[in-house]
Amino acid sequence: MRTNDAQMLVLCALADGPLHGYAINAAIEKLSGERLGPGSLYGALARLESKALIEPLEGEGRQRPMRLTAEGHEVLEREVRSMAEVAGRMFEAAVPDRIGYLDRLAGTDQARSYKQVMLDALAVRPGHTALDLGCGPGTDLAVLAEAVTPSGTVIGIDADPEMAARARERTADLPVVDVRIADAQALPLADASVDRARTDRTLQHVADPAQVLAEARRVLRPGGRLVMGEPDWDSLAIDHPDPEISHAYTRHITERIVRNGVIGRQLPRLATEAGFAVPAVVPVTSVFRDTRSADRILGFQRNAERAAAAGYLSEEATGRFLDHLAEGTFFAAVTLYVVVAEVAEAGAQPSS
Asked: What is the pLDDT of residue 80?
């Protein structure tokens, strides 16, 4: 609904029954996060009354209660239906298939930006053995294969047989690529057999990120390097007139949707505890100004509905959240951290 329209705000405030002016404005504040000025409020009341959408009950002066007329109820219901249709067209309600979602994400400017940072930090050389932990449908295997050249090897690991099968299909013409179905927490690789390893948005989903890091440390050679790119979902900032609504949405993502919602900030500590040196941490903040583009990654409607079902948002707040995203000036941002972890060269002395 057009919550920036004073008349529509008044109609919404009266939806549950008659109210007088002060109580109407209090209800509007609850809906939109701020009250209308006296001129805006009483101007809206006068225009709605002249249109026969509201009518006064008995009372004196401005204390007389106002209620919706039958026509006012129809107008409000029509507007709500209209906005539901707009939201249905604006937001993606169904959960996308996993491979399609990863392909979609990889094609965004935001993903290309952080993936390039990761590739540069990984510093793969010809002849290297490069390990992609959680390779998914093989999104980055071809780039790694080009970097290692025919003299090297790329190993893609994924626990999901469907992902591994798709990765094999996509790299069938790349003989240096070896895709295996395996758990990153128990790698089927020998000690000190890998030169470079990477995780890309994988550790946010695993049961034990510390164990994955321990395994990466085990299989990397002296002088080897692990580069991780993981989001910190607690950094998700979505502009809304009522910050508590967007905060509640972010809390739900962090606490209920993603297994390890703040893994991005934890990586330097976890890597150090696993025996790595951590020479670099690079924050990459993705900024979204277009609602549709952001929704294809963040799934506003389905996740807002989940937040409501889990008690993080009321139904009314969920509607206000989606209405603003569909109609208002849109802004959202989230930060992913690229963390570089290294294994000391053989014979190197630890720094003091």
From this structure: 64
What is the per-residue DSSP string for 41-97? Answer: HHHHHHHHHHTTSEEE-S-SGGGS-EEE-HHHHHHHHHHHHHHHHHHHHHS--SPPP
- CATH number, domain of 64, equals 1.10.10.10
Domain identity same for 277 and 312: yes
Residues 134 and 262 in one domain: yes
Of 68-77, 148-157, 176-185, 229-238, which range is least confident? 68-77
**Could you read off the pLDDT of 215-231 as tens digits, one per residue?**
999 999 999 999 999 99
Q: Residue 319 sits in which domain range?
A: 98-342
100 token code pair:
């399609």
DSSP string computed for 284-337: EEEEE--HHHHHHHH-HHHHHHHHHHTTSS-HHHHHHHHHHHHHS---EEEEEE
By DSSP bridging, strand 332-342 and strand 277-288 are: antiparallel
Whether residues 86 and 102 share a domain: the answer is no
Q: How far apart are CA 190 and CA 195, in angstroms?
A: 12
Please return the burial class of 39, using the count of CB atoms within 10 Å of its CB with bins 0-12, 13-18 and 19+: exposed
Same domain, 280 and 323: yes
List the CATH number of the domain containing 311.
3.40.50.150
Mean pLDDT of 151-167: 97
With tokens 């002249």, the residue in question is: 50
Q: Which has the minimum average pLDDT: 76-85, 184-193, 251-260?
A: 76-85
Is the Cα dihedral 171, 177, 180, 183 positive or negative?
A: negative
Q: In this structure, which long-range contacts are made by residues 91-98, counting pairs with CB atoms below 8 Å and at least 24 apart in sequence? A: 91/295, 91/300, 91/301, 91/302, 91/322, 91/325, 91/326, 92/295, 92/296, 92/299, 92/301, 92/302, 93/301, 93/302, 94/302, 95/299, 95/302, 98/160, 98/162, 98/163
Q: Is 183 in the same domain as 261?
A: yes
* 113 and 261 together in one domain: yes
Q: How much of the chain exceeds pLDDT 70, in percent?
A: 89
Q: Which two tokens stand for residue 251?
A: 């809390």
